[in-house]
Design goal:
It contains six helices and 15 strands. The chain has 241 residues and is α+β, with helices and mostly antiparallel strands. It has two domains: 13-71 and 209-239, Pseudouridine synthase (2-Layer Sandwich), CATH 3.30.2350; 75-207, Pseudouridine synthase (2-Layer Sandwich), CATH 3.30.2350. The longest helix is centred in the C-terminal third of the chain and has 18 residues, at 218-235. It is elongated, with a radius of gyration of 20 Å. The protein starts with 12 loop residues before the first strand and ends in a 6-residue tail after the last helix.
């Protein structure tokens, strides 16, 4: 039950729990359509991959001018990687292309490997990512089978904790800067163990001071907005179609 009033025109910051397999733009579109016939801007502050879930910050109205500020904030994630295999996308979007034996890999080695990925690090974005090269997103090129020269980026990872080891699965918690690709980190982590790894689950639990536990479910918010649509139209008649 949503029990609060919104002013979407002046600007609202909405915390949303992005569903599995939804794109960030799917969420924006759903909320924008639910606000019709109001003509207001709606945008998100920080993309989540379709196979990731968790906190997505949505801004409306005049607050969309602050999206870059919200997007720049520190992020926190929990997730699961699968050791002993790789995929071209570094996650479950594509099928396993290589497998590696897990014999001899110890918990001590796994815990120790996190040190290489803590602090200021460099990483390449995945070939299957939303990064644009010459105006086109990398995942579009990758799906056509094209190879693109990737550029190293500098990111910060203050915290990288291993929270469960039940091989081939490893659970983790990460706090990182804007622009960090967890899929790339997982792939590099597998390589650091002379093995392979891909991401099987990822949830964004925090962005800046905003927490997933305070987020709305998309269905609940959409239902609320539909019920409030007539009231919204009456209170902001100058913005109707």
């Amino acid at each position: 039950m949503i029990e609060r009033e919104f002013n979407f025109v002046e600007g609202e910051l909405l915390l949303i729990n992005k569903p599995y397999k939804w794109t960030s733009f799917d969420v924006v579109g759903k909320i924008r359509n639910s606000l019709k016939p109001l003509k207001i801007k709606v945008g998100h502050a920080g993309t989540l991959d379709p196979l990731a879930t968790g906190l997505l910050i949505i801004c409306t109205g005049k607050l969309t001018k602050q999206i870059d500020t919200f997007q720049a904030q520190e992020k926190e994630y929990t997730g699961t990687m699968v050791l002993g295999a790789t995929t071209p996308s570094y996650d479950m979007e594509t099928v396993v292309d290589q497998e590696f034996p897990l014999d001899g890999i110890t918990a001590e080695q796994i815990y120790a490997a996190t040190a290489q990925f803590t602090g200021d690090i460099q990483q390449y974005p995945p070939a299957h990512s939303a990064v644009k090269v010459n105006g086109e997103r990398l995942y579009v090129k990758a799906r056509r089978g094209e190879e693109t020269e990737l550029r190293l980026r500098f990111v910060s990872v203050p915290v990288f904790e291993i929270t469960r080891i039940e091989l081939p699965e490893i659970d983790f918690r990460i706090i990182c800067s804007k622009g960090t690709y967890i899929r790339s980190l997982v792939s590099d982590f597998g390589a650091a163990l002379n093995n392979g790894a891909y991401l099987s689950k990822l949830t964004r639990t925090r962005s800046g001071d905003f927490s997933l536990q305070n987020a709305f479910e998309v269905a609940d918010l959409v239902a609320y907005l539909k019920n409030k649509r007539e009231e919204l139209c009456v209170t902001t008649p100058n913005l109707l179609s």
